[in-house]
Amino acid sequence: GAVVSQHPSRVICKSGTSVKIECRSLDFQATTMFWYRQFPKQSLMLMATSNEGSKATYEQGVEKDKFLINHASLTLSTLTVTSAHPEDSSFYICSARGTVAGNQPQHFGDGTRLSIL
Amino acid sequence: GNSVTQMEGPVTLSEEAFLTINCTYTATGYPSLFWYVQYPGEGLQLLLKATKADDKGSNKGFEATYRKETTSFHLEKGSVQVSDSAVYFCALVSGNTPLVFGKGTRLSVIA
């Protein structure tokens, strides 16, 4: 079946560092990719939606200058957490949806656990 | 707008017990319905789906039937195993909008 690869799976870094997370669709073309954030024991919070070749659409309350999203190709999207601080520590999950029209499921990466010291 | 409501957990069951996790939805149009599972420390995996009324999705012993008259998509399994311990999310999509998730239900199965 469809596979989404997310890398790295875990990052530990110092406050002030910028961190890039990659999300790749391995066997399908993803016109739309989604980035979620999940706090412990909570549901997923949608941060932004990105369509290939256009600017991402951010959800209310999500700082676009803090969380930079690039969706340069049909198989790759990146999330860069700029100048990360401890409050940015979280589990980040990407998701991708293919090009077929209609009510398609989203396929998820395994997530990136980000810890800022 | 679209929304999903699922029973709050945690749910604790003994091995081989019967499982039901309730899920109801509100949606415009003709949504597709999904159940996702999240094992500890991992991302979400699609467990099963149903795309129209009266469809039954099934996978790994889990089943859910799309009931339009009650706007429900309850997840069931006849005999749970310890390995089924995870968080289960009910979700819907209508058109090209992002998935709308329920809050998740944590299931713990004890031997």
Word description of this protein:
The complex is a heterodimer of chains A (117) and B (111). With 117 residues, chain A is an all-beta fold. Helix content of chain A is 0%, strand content 54%. Chain A has strands at 4-7, 10-13, 19-25, 30-38, 44-51, 57-58, 67-73, 76-81, 90-98, 107-108, 112-116. In chain A, strand 5 (44-51) and strand 6 (57-58) form a beta hairpin. The N and C termini of chain A lie far apart (37 Å). Chain B has 111 residues and is mainly β. In chain B, the strands form three sheets. In chain B, strands 2, 5, 6, 10, 11 and 12 form a six-stranded mixed sheet that branches. A four-stranded antiparallel sheet of chain B has the order 3-9-8-7, with no helix packed on it. Chain A binds chain B through residues 4, 6, 32, 34, 41-44, 46, 49, 93, 95, 101-111, 113, and chain B through 30-32, 34, 36, 41-46, 49, 51, 89, 93-96, 98-99, 101-104, 106.
Class by SSE composition of chain A: mainly beta
Work out the radius of gyration of chain B: 13 Å
Q: What global shape of chain A is seen? A: globular
What percent strand of chain A? Answer: over 45%
Provide the structure class of chain B: mainly beta
Total number of beta strands of chain A: 11
* Shape by Cα distribution of chain B: globular
Mean residue pLDDT of chain A:
90
Specify the number of helices of chain B.
Answer: 0
Quaternary organisation of the protein chains: heterodimer
Radius of gyration of chain A: 14 Å
Strand elements of chain B, count:
12
